[in-house]
Design brief:
The structure holds two protein chains of two kinds.
Chain A (H helix, E strand, L loop, with lengths): L6 E10 L3 H9 L7 H4 L2 E4 L6 E6 L2 E11 L3 E6 L9 E10 L2 E12 L1 H9 L1 H14 L6
Antiparallel strand pairs in A: 1-7, 2-3, 3-4, 4-5, 5-6, 6-7
Chain B lengths: L3 H10 L3 H10 L4 E2 H5 L6 H13 L3 E6 L2 E6 L2 H9 L2 H24 L1
Antiparallel strand pairs in B: 1-3, 2-3
Classes of the chains: A alpha+beta, B alpha+beta.
Chain lengths: 143, 111
């Protein structure tokens, strides 16, 4: 298995057209589409500080431990999956009132930088796999 | 820093099977222009155009050695693209889009 000390961080923002508390609660409600629990094939969820969760998608299990649950401002938990090489990455979700809407920011940090390495190692199969999907999504411009 | 324009250049460069084949050839090591062009059943002029697009994307570089010009592959732009489409980037975007859409639909229903 590859060992990488470099880590990646991804940051996402969405304006959700709903009040703060509704959005916060929605992120932890398995009935609401888009959150982790709703997408899971199987899950277990204990959303309190030091509470644990697991969920599976496409047969892959993910595990974590809640480190911050501050309704309605922030949820933070660790995230362990095969892609993090068993290490704890951190997911921080912040909710801020934005008029009648809620600004939601999700930061996933501490992800071992293995894909760039794998891209290098696996060579062309990686790119040939992903690019047809990319081009189906956007406008394909052939030159 | 990888700009959107650079990303577009790389995506365009590798969107064509001939250009991918050229990169596949160069990934084995630098080659002269005619050696690059040889396997393709296409005019040399067309190969030149493909090479220009690959060069613009930073995927190849030319180096003069004596009378010959050698073309070599540069992998860095592809590694940048690999970071751009990291699995987690795609995963969270899909999740958040679905989450946002749920609340948009809900808002429409209540109007």
């Amino acid at each position: 298995m590859e060992n990488s000390s470099r880590t990646l961080e991804f940051r996402f923002e969405r304006t959700i057209p709903a009040p703060l508390r509704m959005v916060f609660d929605g992120w932890l409600d398995p009935k609401v589409p888009g959150n982790l629990w709703n997408a899971a094939e199987k899950f277990s969820l204990d959303a309190k500080v030091d509470g644990l969760f697991f969920w599976t998608l496409n047969g892959t299990s993910h595990y974590g431990r809640f480190t911050v649950v501050e309704r309605p401002a922030q949820i933070q938990h660790t995230w362990v999956s095969p892609k993090t090489l068993g290490k704890e990455s951190i997911v921080t979700v912040t909710f801020k009132k934005q008029g009648e809407d809620t600004l939601m920011t999700l930061v996933h940090s501490g992800i071992p930088d293995t894909d760039a390495g794998k891209g290098h190692e696996k060579g062309w199969n990686y790119f040939l796999d992903i690019f047809p999907r990319l081009f189906r999504k956007g406008s394909r411009k052939e030159k | 820093m990888f700009t959107v324009d650079q990303l577009t250049d790389v995506l365009i460069a590798i969107s064509h099977p001939t250009r991918r084949a050229i990169i596949g050839r160069l990934a084995n090591g630098p080659a002269r222009f005619l050696d690059v062009a040889k396997p393709f059943d296409t005019a040399l002029n067309a190969v030149t155009k493909h090479l220009k697009l690959l060069e613009r994307a930073g995927l190849i570089q030319r180096r003069k050695q004596g009378r010959e010009v050698y073309i070599s592959f540069r992998g860095e732009p592809l590694r940048q693209v690999a970071g751009w489409v990291h699995d987690y980037e795609r995963f969270w975007n899909e999740r958040l889009d679905e989450f946002q859409q749920y609340f948009r639909d809900k808002k429409k229903e209540t109007k």
